[in-house]
Write a structure and sequence with these properties.
This protein has 243 residues and is mainly α. It has 9 helices and no strands. 77% of the residues lie in helices and 0% in strands.
Amino acid sequence: MTDPLSQIDHLASAGRSPWHRASALAKLLLAAELVLLAVLAPSLSPSLGLLAVLYASAWALALSGRVPWRLLLAASGYPVLFVLLFLVARWDGTLRTPVRLLLPPLTATLVAVWLVTTTPYPDLFAPLSRVLPRSVGDGLFLTYRALFELTRRTDGMWRALRLRGGARGPLSGRLAVAGEGLGTLVLHGFERSQRLYATMQLRGHTGRICGCRHFAEGTRYDLLAGAAGLAVAVGAALAWRMP
């Protein structure tokens, strides 16, 4: 499991941190609090103290969830790639501006990684399916699962191409091979979706995929999520009053 998606999927089910024993609903509420504060922080406070507190809180959650360092660093790098052009356009020559622009997406990314690595995906999508329209919730559920299947398929195809010399030769030949590989992946995805739908019908699919209810079953570890949420709120309030 070298790719981040497979590692996330494995950690969500096989992790042993206290957060893995808390209910999905409690963790979703805590994640929503942190992400909402991170998004609103630039307009709530002119200082960087509030953003720094939220960023530190996100790191504390991720580390307490026993998320590997490499996975955290890889996830932290994704927002930088998307925000880089915006940073160049908005940069005024000071360090303060890029920090204010980078910390909110970095905080949200760390919180998202903590959430998906400590919560199995059926529990994660079950409460969302209660809020979103049924077709949207079920579509997100199947799309999330399909990502791992396509990732494994792509990795296997790329290894086969390298072993058989498909990654060498002129550029035109490599582009042709890449196009054929992409077409193979598309056909594989279509065929797999047809088989999955047929299997669901045979097993009595009633129009609701995410039907599990234990996502809201409280445990004593939910007190940890409540304490973390209270600590974030107190820290944010103190940082908001800082000059």
